[in-house]
């Protein structure tokens, strides 16, 4: 590899930020960079792919701020795919393909979906149209979870 192709790379321990006044306004700074030919980051921050660091929750937060989270591999393929699904469903702060429930499903069904996907609310749809939203607050004191409706 040619010497001019080797670029400086820094890790967490290589940088110390000291609070101080600056002559540069935040709006004048461009921190964009490329992780790969097809992936641009708005901030040059990548979380560690460690089992104690990055799962869906951090990957979502990183993406919302302009960085990227690499989900660790100490998961079964099914669990790893589920983590990635959670991240993909939260792209751009808008859920593109939300988990929904129909008015015909039970409170238990809603509770199970909310627990499975770690969400606090679920849209209620009928024939693809929104008819309501069920939240964990609505379910807090509900005791009829196994009844039909």
Explain what you see:
This protein is an alpha+beta fold and 149 residues long. The chain has 2 domains: 30-96, no CATH class; 98-149, CBS-domain (Roll). 24% of the residues lie in helices and 14% in strands. It has 4 helices and 6 strands. The strands form 3 sheets. It has a two-stranded antiparallel sheet. The model has no long low-confidence stretch (mean pLDDT 86).
Query: Ends: how far apart?
Result: 66 Å
Give me the side-by-side strand order of the main sheet.
1-2
Number of domains: 2
Quaternary state of the chains: single chain
Largest sheet: 2 strands, antiparallel
- Count helical runs: 4
Strand content: 5-15%
Write the layout of secondary structure elements.
Layout: E1 33-34, E2 40-41, E3 46-47, H1 56-65, E4 68-69, H2 77-88, H3 107-116, E5 121-126, E6 129-135, H4 136-139
Parallel strand pairs: 3-4
Antiparallel strand pairs: 1-2, 5-6
Keywords, please?
elongated, alpha+beta, 4 helices, 149 residues, two-stranded parallel sheet, CBS-domain
Short description, anyone?
By secondary structure, this protein is an alpha+beta fold. The protein contains four helices and six strands; from the N terminus they run βββαβααββα.
């Amino acid at each position: 590899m040619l010497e001019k192709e080797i670029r400086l790379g820094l890790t967490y321990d290589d940088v110390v930020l000291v609070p101080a006044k600056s002559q540069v306004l935040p709006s004048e700074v461009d921190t964009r960079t490329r992780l790969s030919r097809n992936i641009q980051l708005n901030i040059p921050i990548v979380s560690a792919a460690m089992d104690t660091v990055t799962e869906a929750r951090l990957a979502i937060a990183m993406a919302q701020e302009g960085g990227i989270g690499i989900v660790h591999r100490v998961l079964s393929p099914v669990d790893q795919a589920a983590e990635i699904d959670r991240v993909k469903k939260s792209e751009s702060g808008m859920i593109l393909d939300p988990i929904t429930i129909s008015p015909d499903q039970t409170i238990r069904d809603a509770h199970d979906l909310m627990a499975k996907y770690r969400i606090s609310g679920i849209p209620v749809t009928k024939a693809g149209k929104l008819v309501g939203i069920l939240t964990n607050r609505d379910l807090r004191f509900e005791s009829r979870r196994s009844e039909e409706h």
